[in-house]
TrEMBL record:
<protein>
    <recommendedName>
        <fullName>inorganic diphosphatase</fullName>
        <ecNumber>3.6.1.1</ecNumber>
    </recommendedName>
</protein>
<dbReference type="InterPro" id="IPR038763">
    <property type="entry name" value="DHH_sf"/>
</dbReference>
<keyword id="KW-0464">Manganese</keyword>
<keyword id="KW-0378">Hydrolase</keyword>
<comment type="similarity">
    <text>Belongs to the PPase class C family. Prune subfamily.</text>
</comment>
<dbReference type="InterPro" id="IPR051319">
    <property type="entry name" value="Oligoribo/pAp-PDE_c-di-AMP_PDE"/>
</dbReference>
<dbReference type="Pfam" id="PF02833">
    <property type="entry name" value="DHHA2"/>
</dbReference>
<dbReference type="GO" id="GO:0046872">
    <property type="term" value="F:metal ion binding"/>
</dbReference>
<dbReference type="InterPro" id="IPR038222">
    <property type="entry name" value="DHHA2_dom_sf"/>
</dbReference>
<dbReference type="Pfam" id="PF01368">
    <property type="entry name" value="DHH"/>
</dbReference>
<feature type="domain" description="DHHA2">
    <location>
        <begin position="185"/>
        <end position="312"/>
    </location>
</feature>
<dbReference type="GO" id="GO:0005737">
    <property type="term" value="C:cytoplasm"/>
</dbReference>
<dbReference type="InterPro" id="IPR004097">
    <property type="entry name" value="DHHA2"/>
</dbReference>
<dbReference type="InterPro" id="IPR001667">
    <property type="entry name" value="DDH_dom"/>
</dbReference>
<dbReference type="GO" id="GO:0004427">
    <property type="term" value="F:inorganic diphosphate phosphatase activity"/>
</dbReference>
<keyword id="KW-0479">Metal-binding</keyword>
Length: 316
């Protein structure tokens, strides 16, 4: 059972490196300013995040308990939409929100600490808190932050990357003692692309998030990999998993993209209608053999979701 004086810090429902690292780092920041806090995760970690934590010498955070008392103080990291958060969020006391995504459906009965900026990574924002409060950043924390930024910007490949992300990496690299950051980034991408031991259902869930468009729930999943052909070879099985997930989660539509990290290419799987029409109209992309070529649209936050929102806004 959680100590009600402890701030419970966690990222979104399907954890990635930024959400896990930023939760760990923000919990550390709160403790440094004498606020009791602990980081948690909402689900199993992917191989990239495991690699990062092992390299930094950090233990995995515990899974968030499902019996938190009502009114527990929580900090939402790298998300602010209820569909992506913990169950029973409405009964918690949201105290902090740190995010770099669009505003969602979050409402609170009292003022909270909000830190939102359109940067490439949530960890970039938390670093600023350390600097503004004149706190030293340890090698472990620096390793975590640099890793998160590399992950969430694909080492500055994504259009969401900002000069702030680059400057934070440059500022922290000497502290990390990483000899070759390009080699380290490639090791992270290799770990991220290692899907051995995962079922097709788990592969679909790696980058899965649910969004609300005109009161319709859509699942949108992006999988970044340096081995896209391995995923494309499993297309038929993944299409069936998408059909099953759509039915199980009562979704209006579901989209799954395989994104080639090095070539910057997005291959989106299409199970049928209404997905085919939406993708054709929103992205001007035709579907062939149940795959739509979305070109260089690599960022869900900047290249995918805004196009879908614009489509649904004009197609009620």
């Amino acid at each position: 059972m959680n100590d009600t004086n402890e701030v419970v810090v966690f990222g979104h429902r399907n954890p990635d490196t930024d959400s896990v690292v930023s939760a760990l780092v923000f919990a550390d920041f709160l403790r440094r300013i004498k606020i009791n806090a602990k980081a948690y995760r909402l689900n199993d970690l992917d191989n990239e995040t495991k690699f990062v934590l092992k390299t930094a010498g950090i233990e995995q955070p515990d899974v968030l308990p499902d019996n938190l008392p009502n009114g527990t103080k929580v900090a939402l990291i790298d998300h602010n939409e209820s569909q992506q958060s913990m169950e029973n969020l409405k009964n918690m006391r949201v105290t902090y929100v740190i995010d770099h995504h669009k505003l969602g459906d979050l409402t609170t009965p009292e003022p909270v600490f909000l830190l939102f900026e359109p940067v490439g990574c949530a960890a970039t924002l938390i670093t600023k808190l350390y600097i503004d409060n004149q706190l030293d950043i340890t090698q472990q924390i620096a390793m975590l932050i640099v890793s998160a930024i590399i992950s969430d910007t694909l080492h500055f490949r994504l259009p969401t990357t900002t000069d702030k992300d680059r400057s934070i990496v440059n500022y922290l690299l000497p502290i990390t003692k990483i000899d070759n950051v390009t080699m380290y980034a490639n090791q992270m991408f290799e770990a991220n692309s290692d899907l051995s031991g995962l079922s097709l259902q788990q592969i679909l869930q790696v980058g899965f998030k649910i969004f609300l468009f005109n009161d319709q729930q859509w699942g949108v999943s992006l999988l970044y990999t340096i081995y896209p052909n391995r995923i494309l070879e499993s297309k038929e099985g993944l299409l069936q998993e998408m059909v099953d997930e759509k039915k199980k989660s009562n979704l209006t539509g579901i989209l799954f993209s395989v994104v080639d990290i090095f070539k910057g290419q997005n291959y989106m799987f299409i199970i049928g209608e209404p997905e085919r029409t939406v993708v054709r109209e929103a992205f001007k992309a035709n579907t062939e053999k149940q795959v739509a070529d979305l070109g260089s649209r690599m960022s869900r936050k900047k290249d995918i979701i805004p196009c879908l929102e614009a489509y649904f806004k004009t197609n009620h």
